[in-house]
Amino acid sequence: xxxxxxxxxxxxxxxxxxxxxxxxxxxxxxxxxxxxxxxxxxxxxxxxxxxxxxxxxxxxxxxxxxxxxxxxxxxxxxxxxxxxxxxxxxxxxxxxxxxxxxxxxxxxxxxxxxxxxxxxxxxxxxxxxxxxxxxxxxxxxxxxxxxxxxxxxxxxxxxxxxxxxxxxxxxxxxxxxxxxxxxxxxxxxxxxxxxxxxxxxxxxxxxxxxxxxxxxxxxxxxxxxxxxxxxxxxxxxxxxxxxxxxxxxxxxxxxxxxxxxxxxxxxxxxxxxxxxxxxxxxxxxxxxxxxxxxxxxxxxxxxxxxxxxxxxxxxxxxxxxxxxxxxxxxxxxxxxxxxxxxxxxxxxxxxxxxxxxxxxxxxxxxxxxxxxxxxxxxxxxxxxxxxxxxxxxxxxxxxxxxxxxxxxxxxxxxxxxxxxxxxxxxxxxxxxxxxxxxxxxxxxxxxxxxxxxxxxxxxxxxxxxxxxxxxxxxxxxxxxxxxxxxxxxxxxxxxxxxxxxxxxxxxx
Length: 508
Fold this sequence. Notes:
This protein is of the alpha/beta class. It is built from nine helices and 33 strands.
């Protein structure tokens, strides 16, 4: 009897477990597993199952000019928009223009089918594949970015299209322009386009590229560089109208100029070497009387690739982050890797160039007890030393400092007592102090102004206990009196003047 009861109990548990499993199988996925959606400006963005990216799954807006967003914010984070489904815009007769971001790499098949009023399409660098997407539109011209590598019936039955420009090198497959009865001009800016390379065609694919386009080789003008594959292809296929594109030295000259603007000292030697070689090669080409379009384009491409591969080298061994300024003749410190320490001694030169500027926010929220600023610095920019816990700031004996911008040494929102600076001596070279330069420094008791002619901004200091020391008849004396600060004379042999001034203060 006992054995029978145990068996019955086991069977009941098994049935219960099976029922539980079946319930789970019909329940919807949990909220955490569900794809997230965002609705904004008429767009519905849906998270792609792989996560970290979204696609557009619906559009309910009525705008005529649409700029498809390249990113969307969801739950405090920003994600790229990488696709849209074929039904989103298809048949939308309100749209007159659309711009597609480079984050979308594939132009969806039938994406703009029968958008009969769509006249302007802007494609951005980043797009890689174009499927037939513009049937039944009023688009008259389109530029295909250099990043595009794949066409698939790209302009099938686009009867309104008149001009297509290819910026890069790609394969032009069969029926690319099938049914494009209004096509007048095709521009090939690449030197190495191919034609129907993936299809066996004894007529080099030309009739199939222009299927259902009567007299294509008489009515369409091919624009290409002489010596390019496209130019030779048009010649071999007996196009009546072949226009030789011209490329002049000015494009290469501009590329060289842009390349030379990249300061060598800003990059690692290994990464800069290819750029130096590309510049030299370009200069050799520019010396030729009539360089070929092929050489010019390749040289420009080599320069651009070398620039994209540069590796920054703008951090000193002791952690200062910098950049060049004033035509790469001077250095500006823009930060430091370490956030705190006992002493922050700013270098006077880097890479044999003088350090003349402390950049905005360079040492914001950087806590050093002692900061030493070298003679070479001529300007301290906004919020440069908005750092707490600093007890002492020292300028060099021969300081060339001329400008302290607004809020340069200000502190805001810190805990009481964190502004540790009690006194500071400003150099004789100083010409201007911006407004609120020392705002929040409540413990600042003594400021010595060694310049007789300094332009003061509004509310430079906020300490109620401040004494300013400076020269007689100086702008510092005027500023102190106008703002109710105590003033002491800095002039040599002015003990008697100081005594009289102290007596006057006592009477007041």
